[in-house]
Amino acid sequence: MGKCVVARNINGTAPDGLEYLLEDNGEIKVFDEIEQAWSFLKDAGATDKDISYYRFFDYVGLVNGEYKELSLLLKTSEIFKRYKKYVAENLRIIEGSASISMELEEEKNRPWSSARHIRIDLECEEDESLNYELRLSNHQDSGWRICAIINSPLGLGEFKNYLPDQEIQIDLYCISDEIVIEKLKS
């Protein structure tokens, strides 16, 4: 993916109602890639909910008068990273460690359907209340997208802003890790 710019709707209309992220000199801020723009927003204190209001556009297309909107791919490795952070922040144990895992399982498809489905199970052995499941669907090779979040202690929380348009890239199918807890969580 190439250079991109970040904008948000001013009056709920686009493209004429867009406000672009600017440099200090008033020029439109250009990022080398969409992940860099996303990291910039996060480092500036934007929450996932805040970022859901921003739109990412191809810079070259914008220069040529085309508004080609880009999509930030969310990788399964990023889902696991966020889950690990969530568990570390919400697990209530005195010093020790907790085992977490993520496993993807492709569900049996109906022979008459062009849709495919994958289930992502995120589990914490020490606290089942922190477990949850994401369901992804792929229709006619259009890319994987979150279609449901089941038994989520987050109540759609951590990933709700990715529904339903966020494309998911599967870069990990199975992983486990340990979280070390150094102090009592209140």
Could you walk me through the main structural features you see in this protein, from its secondary elements to its overall organization?
The protein is flat, with a radius of gyration of 19 Å. The model has no long low-confidence stretch (mean pLDDT 81). Helices cover 19% and strands 36% of the residues. It has 2 domains: 4-70, no CATH class; 74-181, no CATH class. It has 186 residues and is an alpha+beta fold.
Task: Report the radius of gyration as a whole number of Å.
Answer: 19 Å
> What structural category do the secondary elements indicate?
alpha+beta
Unreliable residue runs: none
Strand order of the largest sheet: 6-11-10-9-8-7-12
What is the helix/strand order? EEEHHEHEEHEEEEEE
Beta-strand fraction estimate: 35-45%
Count of alpha and pi helical runs: 4
Average pLDDT metric: 81
User: Rough shape?
Assistant: flat
User: Whole-Å distance between the termini?
Assistant: 43 Å
The tally of domains stands at 2
Helix content: 10-25%
Tally the beta strands: 12
Main pleated sheet: 7 strands, mixed
Summarize the structure.
This protein has helices at residues 34-43, 48-52, 59-63, 76-90, and strands at 4-9, 18-20, 30-31, 54-58, 69-70, 74-75, 96-106, 115-124, 132-139, 144-150, 167-169, 174-181. The protein is an alpha+beta fold.
Spell out the key features of this protein.
12 strands; about 190 residues; seven-stranded mixed beta sheet
Topology of this protein?
Elements lengths: L3 E6 L8 E3 L9 E2 L2 H10 L4 H5 L1 E5 H5 L5 E2 L3 E2 H15 L5 E11 L8 E10 L7 E8 L4 E7 L16 E3 L4 E8 L5
Parallel strand pairs: 6-11
Antiparallel strand pairs: 1-2, 1-3, 1-4, 4-5, 7-8, 7-12, 8-9, 9-10, 10-11
